Amino acid sequence: MALRVVQWATGGVGTAAIKGVLEHPDLDLVGCWVHSAAKNGRDVGELIGGDPIGVIATSSAEEILALDADAVIYAPLLPDPDEVAALLRSGKNVVTPVGWIYPGEKQAAPMREAGLAGNATLHGTGIAPGGISEKFPILFSAMSTGVTFVRAEEFSDLRTYDAPDVVRHVMGFGETPDKALSGPMQKLLDNGFIQAVKMCVDAFGFAADPTITARQEIAVATAPIESPIGTIEPGQVAGRKFHWEALVGGEVVVRVTVNWLMGEENLDPHWDFGPEGQRYEMQVRGNPDFTVVITGFQGEVGEQGPEPGVVATAAHCVNSIPAVCAAPPGVATYLDLPLFGAKAAPGLQRG
Ligand SMILES: NC(=O)c1ccc[n+]([C@@H]2O[C@H](COP(=O)([O-])OP(=O)(O)OC[C@H]3O[C@@H](n4cnc5c(N)ncnc54)[C@H](OP(=O)(O)O)[C@@H]3O)[C@@H](O)[C@H]2O)c1
What's the confidence (pLDDT) of residue 80? Predict the structure, then answer.
């Protein structure tokens, strides 16, 4: 029996998740919630640019809550904890890229309570925070012992990110350094990335200070830089780095870093990606030391189609569904779920 899945919101992640569910041999798409009035009442197959599939999108949360479904992929712009709790109480497992990857007790408690009431499980996942910043470093570290330091780092060219309002007003690119530094980005990122560092601290068993330090750096343009938000003028923000660190006795033992650059030219300080280019990198110092580099999750400037990292985020949600549905009710993190991967493409699947 295939698991019955609902997609909640059809942005970049939601659209890729629908395609992933339709290709997955153990999942059936049975419903879809949309925010946009223009999408309400439309066939979901058409919404993702394909043929009709007989599943009609709705903007009514009540209709979704009343549906007989096993799981919801919850991918709206911003999380609404009450909405997630209602889905859990209605008996639907929830997988989501918008939080709860390794929630503290205050965030976990109401979700656990709702999950127990509905016999359902909540699982937060994603690419970063998510796979790159905590799950994979922990997984790969099984090939080492005596770990002294763990690092997960993103190197991305933000010129491929086609969300001009977010890039300017939320991420602070094209603004003055003062405005960017006092903007919402640090706080927005802190919640997820501090959870990522804490999961590593707990999984490795580091005797780390309970406070995770967060710091950021800014680069400004030294000459006009063409970008999706228009020309970034000299003196305006064109590069940002965010770091989250756990310390033992003043020494960093876990570090997660994000490097977001508007290209690699005309920046002060002169930041670049080095010869390896855009990538995600994970390093473990132990016996032995090793580094894992992942390419392919970042699109190239000018490339058409969805951002691969967004598709990967959706895939991580989709592929987790069978394990999340089988997990005990409450909140399940990467540390609770068994190993799972993707399924073969249609046409290569066992009958
Ligand atoms: N952890 C990770 O690694 C990771 C990676 C990527 C994304 N994310 C997160 O996943 C979420 C979805 O990302 P995305 O790239 O799909 O974003 P997106 O393309 O901007 O889509 C978000 C969707 O949310 C719906 N929406 C818009 N305004 C809304 C509102 N006011 N209230 C509720 N829903 C609204 C819309 O759905 P309809 O179009 O259906 O109306 C929209 O398409 C974001 O929160 C993002 O930060 C996490």
Answer: 98
